[in-house]
Amino acid sequence: MKRILITLFLLSSFSIGICSAQSTQSNELKSSENSLLWKISGNGLQHDSYLLGTMHNVDRTFLDSISGFRKAFKEAKQVAIECDAYALDNQEMDIAQYVYMPQDSTYAILYSDSDFQFVDSILREGNPQYFKYKPMFWCLFFTNMIAYQNIRGKETGMDRFILLIGEQNYKKTLFMETLEEVNKRTAYLDSLRYSINLKYQAASLKAILQSPETISTLMILVSKLYKEQSTSSLMAIDSLNKKNMNFSELENIQNEEKQHFKKMMEHFFEILGSRRNEQWMKNIIPMIHEDSSLIAVGALHLLGPDGLIAKLRDRGYNVEPIK
């Protein structure tokens, strides 16, 4: 459980991640509604539009396996993804001060002698100056490396490919949020990550280095359920992990710190999930009334009582799964 909790927090940058920030209230989809592609109609719309649930580390070739995708893409006059991923990739970002280790702490202080030798032997081989950065920096580095190991790179992911072929087919391309909004949110959430007790960061890093298969196994399971289009199972995993978020197994961490961490994670997930969904609705409504649109976002943003499907239905639109 300890390593699963570590994975939960680190994978929270993936919209499809196990920590998607949807409410844990009972609002499961019917089995007949297990789908990744949904048609939006009614409520005064002149053209049908489509919602597509993606997984950011699934290769673009899977799009051909989604029933109705080609038709939806052909019909759509405009395509939208979460943000301008290519522009985001080309940004030059300065390393924030909170990423660096404080002067009064070292890796040797955070670990026992044997644990330090283990961590040091791995990190020093890759970067002799690793000790300049907090353990969270390396937690995120290795988590992302493991998460994307099964595809050739981020550039071959589904979202970027949809943006690329949209532009190639002269479709209007739109984004759910601006780069400024993404950067502001990322900086804030990173500040939360790096504010975690250094001993817990160190324990997390050691766990990842000792058992990288924990993350890869979890990602394989999520990818499998996604490719099976078992959205109800993805929601069930999400809900189960949040119910188990009690942190009782964390060693050498005071109860007060555990409660603080729990509240921080809940806040973290709310920002990534329900708050973003509500903000995106302000873009989606005018978008689908303007013209036929294909809107591709992380799959779990579609689901649950705070998901885009529920929000559209609450506003009077028909949202139907495409099989």
Describe the 3D structure.
This protein has 323 residues and is α/β, with parallel strands linked by helices. The chain has one domain. Helices cover 50% and strands 9% of the residues. The chain has 13 helices and 6 strands. The protein has helices at residues 2-10, 69-75, 85-89, 107-110, 113-126, 135-147, 158-168, 179-194, 198-210, 213-227, 231-243, 255-290, 308-314, and strands at 37-41, 49-54, 78-81, 172-175, 293-298, 318-321. The protein has a 6-stranded mixed beta sheet with strand order 4-3-5-2-1-6, with helices on both faces. Strand 1 (37-41) and strand 2 form a beta hairpin. The longest helix is centred in the C-terminal third of the chain and has 36 residues, at 255-290. The radius of gyration is 21 Å and the shape is elongated.
Order of helices and strands: HEEHEHHHHHEHHHHHEHE
Largest sheet: 6 strands, mixed
**General form:** elongated
Radius of gyration: 21 Å
Strand adjacency order, main sheet: 4-3-5-2-1-6
Number of helical regions: 13
- Ends distance: 36 Å
Structural class comes to: alpha/beta
